[in-house]
Amino acid sequence: MTGASLWLCPPAGSSIETALQELISVTIPPHFGDEKVPAFRPHMTITSDIPDDLDPEGVLEKISLSSPLEVSFKELNIGKTYYTRGTLHLERTPAIVGLARQCRELFAHGGTEEEVVDRWEKEVFTPHVSLVYSAMDPVPDNIRKAVGQDLQEANVGVLHWNGPKGEMRGWKGGRISLVSTHKPIEEWKAMAERTL
Fold it and tell me: Entry's Pfam families (predicted)?
């Protein structure tokens, strides 16, 4: 990945943060055999390609939020790239899309024109929470089913599942983090963080 990234993370210490971290770090990796899949913090990438020489606190201060942010899991998706191999796709709410557009326009590549942001939003932006980064391609059906089972057992729900009452189907609020994703995954860390 080039530059730094802005992430929307679950509220610190929340049940959904704990459940997702357990899935990412412990439960899902064994399905991928001998491949050493990395652990990472649960997050939705708002945008990437942010120059890493910008003032981290200044970036977070410039973000304005007009409505409360709510993340809702839509479906489990097995993607075609290393970073999207296993994801929870999210509902494209006006608040999520608005935040992504604002951050892309303000910070990506040091600032981007509105028409470029329009194209990025329509063709590239797919709000999701990654569960695994993997080189496995294709992912066999039995692994796809196992990851779905892991989600159900962790009580993490998506819209088309009728799970138990109290099922975790997303989060409200959380934290925006500017993360050093231009470095190797094991060196990713928050350069600055803002609680919503």
Answer: CPDase
User: How does pLDDT run across 177-196, given as a tens digit for each residue?
Assistant: 999 999 999 999 999 999 99
- Fold of the domain built from segment(s) 4-195: Cyclic Phosphodiesterase; Chain: A, (3.90.1140)
Contacts of 27 (CB under 8 A, 6+ apart): 150, 154
DSSP string spanning 90-124? E---HHHHHHHHHHHHHHGGG---HHHHHHHHHHT
Domain locations along the chain: 4-195
- pTM for this one? 0.93
Helix (H) or strand (E) holding 77: strand 70-77
Asked if residue 138 has a cis previous peptide bond (ω within 30° of 0), the answer is: yes
Sign of CA dihedral 183, 185, 186, 190: positive
Decide if 79 contacts 86 (C-beta within 8 A): yes
